[in-house]
Amino acid sequence: MFDSEVIKKIKNGEIDFFEVLVKKYSKVIYSYLFSKLKNKEDCEDLTQEIFLSFYKNINRFDEKKPVLPYLFEITKNSLKMFYRKRKKILPLKEEIIKEEDNFKFFEDIEVNSFGNLNKLNKKEKKIFEMLKQGYKIKEIAKILRIKENTIKSIIRRGRLKLKIKK
Amino acid sequence: MKKLEKKILKKVYFWEAKKTVFDLVLKMILFFSSGLFLLIFGQIFFEILNEQKTLDLLNFFSEDFEVVKKYFLDNIFIFFFEMPKFLLLLLLLFLAIFSLVILTLIKNFYILKNKVKSFLKFFKKI
Asked: With an 8 Å Cβ cutoff, is A23 touching chain B?
């Protein structure tokens, strides 16, 4: 049976014919997703969502057009959404939240805890030395002509290298 | 893979069943409420027309053809002038909703029948 006939039947309320499309295309979509995500659970979830989304829009789908490119279009969008969602739910470390809340946190590193600054690269070293001398982040940003947020990231990275805990 | 196919179908069927039931319930509510309002307002409307003896104007059609021809427009004008306009508007509104619901139900009857058949088949399987 052709896809167009199957879709016509589904549009006519014979939902059982959706099984034909699922059997025909689920493997292809799943394999494609697995090549991208390399995670069985995520791939299964996404495949389910893709087929559900296809079903939801099936009344608007032109049965004369091929199904697979349309499914891949949904897959592409779903993947984008998936990556965006995953980005959003990245667990924030408590200390990072604290850092965002407390601007002073970057500047309040004890002088003794700087340790061996040789572990740092040139830029990090310079910033840490300026911090040591008592400069504020705003001032460092102005002097070095770097954005404040960039300096914060450099400090965060440097602190990790120096293993400074706070 | 079979497991995944089953999961997909289950998800689709549950979504469709939910949507169909919601649609059906909504249409039933609209059908019965508009029908009920149509009945109530219709009754009030005709009672008012009866009290005003407006309906007696229709007896005029049993008159001679020449008389009907001569006074037709005048009578029609009086008839509409005496009608309770707001009530008429409400009646037309509910009539429109009522007929729209019936029309969509008739139009989608076969689709709905097929869907119910598919649901029964699927839910018997699981």
From this structure: yes
Per-residue CA distances from A99 to A152, A162, B49, B63 (Å): 9, 17, 78, 95
Q: CB–CB of A19 and B5 under 8 A?
A: yes
The model's pLDDT over A11-69, given as tens digits with 9 standing for 90+, comes to 999 999 999 999 999 999 999 999 988 888 999 999 999 999 999 999 999 988 999 99
CB contact (8 A) between residue A51 and residue B119? no
Chain B contact present for A12, CB below 8 A: yes
Q: Does B122 touch chain A (CB under 8 A)?
A: yes
Element (H, E) at A98: helix A94-101
Chain A residues in contact with B2 by the CB 8 A cut-off are: none
pLDDT recorded at residue B92: 93
CA distance B126 to B120: 10
User: Which amino acid, one-letter code, is at A49?
Assistant: E
The ipTM, to two decimals, is: 0.75
pLDDT higher than 70, residue B72: yes
- pTM, two decimals, is 0.65
Distance CA B30, CA B102 (A): 10
B107 touching A, CB under 8 A? Answer: no
| Residue scoring higher pLDDT (B61 or B109) | B109
Nearest by Cα to B89 from B41, B36, B49: B41
